[in-house]
Amino acid sequence: MTQAARSSVIRFGTDGWRGLIAEDFTFDNVRACAQATSRYLQESGTAGKGIVVGYDTRFASEQFAAAVAEVMAAHDIHVYLCDRAAPTPVVGYAILTHGAAGSVVITSSHNPALYSGFKVRTEYAGAAPPEVVAKIESLLPDDGRAVRRMPLSQAKESARVQMIDPEQPYMAHVAELVDVERLRWAGMRVVADPMFGAGAGYLQSALAGGSTEVLEIRGEHNPAFPGMHNPEPIPRNLDATVEAVLNYHAQAALATDGDADRLGLLDGTGKFVNQLQTFALLAYYLLEVRGMRGPIVKSVTTTSMVTRLGELYNVPVYETGVGFKYLGPRMRETDALIAGEESGGFAFRGHMPERDGIVSGLLILDLMARRKKELPELIEELFAKVGPHYYDRIDIEMTPEGRQAVEARLAGLQPREIAGLPVTGCDRTDGLRFRLEDGAWALIRLSGTEPLMRIYTEVRREEQVEPVLQAVRSLTGA
Predict the structure, then answer these.
(1) Model confidence pLDDT, tens digit, residues 317-338
(2) Each residue's pLDDT tens digit, 172-195
């Protein structure tokens, strides 16, 4: 495969490169990515620090990770290879534990079972910024036969590959961020749903040993992700979680995606607490309950509730494009207290400038324990501060031709109103966002990692959600 042909297959999107296993995501292409990343580390002068290599529970992830380690070792880069499937944030913390130059994680996060992916993280355990992934892409080899490899057995014998347990240092650090001991004895009933992903066992382990009870479902290894469209913690994939909450009489359910960097939340009635509400609750918890102060960083697709919280607590709020390759660097620049995006990914000061579904879930439980309130009561408390806000999104699958047609159409869109709400402005920070009256908004965005168009809205009255989504869809012609 020529470099031009390989580059047409390997394109780093919002959060790394993803492809169909055995079609695009092949051992040859993964090795090519590993060699390009090795060369980047060498050129940046960080190769001497070594690299952490991790993987999730998808089909052949362990073998793909071994292939990455073999290429890195052949380039004389010390590899800290995880000895088990691990969440992306756990692998990220291993970077800090070992002082490594970054990590490569074999995962495609929330994508359907047929996909896998190649995620690159930096020495500060954050998503690689755009200039870094662009450089890695430019270093892809012309010919797969030019990729250097060292057999894994030889790499281990020569100590170029070191097997590590990433879990224990991470769990010790989490106990510094959250009062885990209090949560263990809070007497709560919680459902943990890792969705057959790499987060299996983590929440259950963190809260074991006291009066709090944790029921884990879908914790076994099953790379087919049965019973769901994809391991993304959103309502269409959480029927089993709702059933568990009701049968177990739980107060909440914490669902994490395939690599456990995103959180989905259910209350004790089985109702989904959407990602925008979750972000606002976490920001409110840090500002009001913990009394902490610092900037908030948000993506364009997430809630204006945190903007209002910023005004109320006199902290700045910064907005970026979608993805932690934008949010993470801005978080570091501003020493932000929290950063979040619509996908259910949240990061916290004192941890890493990167999403962590496990820590996010524990902080939500801490909010419930400290306030001694259920989630519906906490949302009412939040709305009393910032006013009611309602959100939803629709995902529309796109062909390449359909995507081109929509892109052409978006260039000239200038509606005066959407579903009866006057348009007060628009911007193209990431996609096309319409600002509507009374602080409402709607946004059209073409995914950088999947063949999808997403349409989002946040409005002040619940009955406006569906009309706005459908009106915006009609504007796209999709």
Answers:
(1) 999 998 898 999 999 999 999 9
(2) 999 999 999 999 999 999 999 999
For 191, the token pair is 């459902």
Domain range list for the chain: 3-165, 178-386, 390-476
Paired sense of beta strands 338-340 and 296-299, if any = parallel
Query: What is residue 267's three-state secondary structure?
Result: strand
Full DSSP string of 295-318: -EEEETTS-THHHHHHHHHT--EE
Q: What Rg do the C-alpha atoms of the chain give, in angstroms?
A: 22
* d(C-alpha 282, C-alpha 351), whole Å: 15
Q: List the one residue out of 375, 337, 347, 170 whose CA is nearest residue 254.
A: 375
Fold equal for 3-165 and 178-386:
yes
Among 90, 102, 95, 13, smallest CA distance to 323 is for 13
Helix (H/G/I), strand (E/B), else coil: 37:
helix
Q: Which CATH architecture has domain 390-476?
A: 2-Layer Sandwich (3.30)
Rounded to an integer, what distance in angstroms lies between the CA atom of residue 226 and that of residue 338? Answer: 34
Kindly state the tokens that stand for 197: 């992903």
Kind of pairing, strands 103-106 and 51-55?
parallel
Q: Is the distance from CB of 375 to CB of 368 less than 8 angstroms?
A: yes
The pair of structure tokens assigned to 80 is 């800290």
The CATH number of 3-165 is 3.40.120.10
Between CA 78 and CA 162 the distance in angstroms is 8
Distance separating alpha carbons of residues 478 and 467, to the nearest angstrom: 16
The token pair that represents 91 in the structure block: 């692998």
Instruction: Evaluate whether 389 touches 460 at the Cβ level (below 8 Å).
Output: yes
Please give the structure tokens belonging to residue 13: 């999107």
- 178-386 folds as Alpha-D-Glucose-1,6-Bisphosphate; Chain A, domain 3 (3.40.120)
Q: What average pLDDT values come out for the chain (478 residues) when binned by 10 residues?
A: 57 81 96 96 97 98 98 98 98 98 96 96 92 91 83 97 97 96 97 98 96 98 96 97 98 98 98 97 98 97 95 97 91 97 96 97 98 98 96 91 88 91 92 91 86 93 95 91
Residue 405, classified by CB atoms within 10 Å of its CB into exposed (0-12), middle (13-18) or buried (19+), is middle
Q: Which residues are within 8 A (CB) of 55 and not within 5 positions of it... i.e. 6 or more apart?
A: 61, 62, 64, 65, 82, 85, 86, 105, 106, 107
Q: Are strands 115-121 and 189-193 parallel, antiparallel or unpaired?
A: unpaired
**Nearest by Cα to 390 from 453, 450, 460:** 460
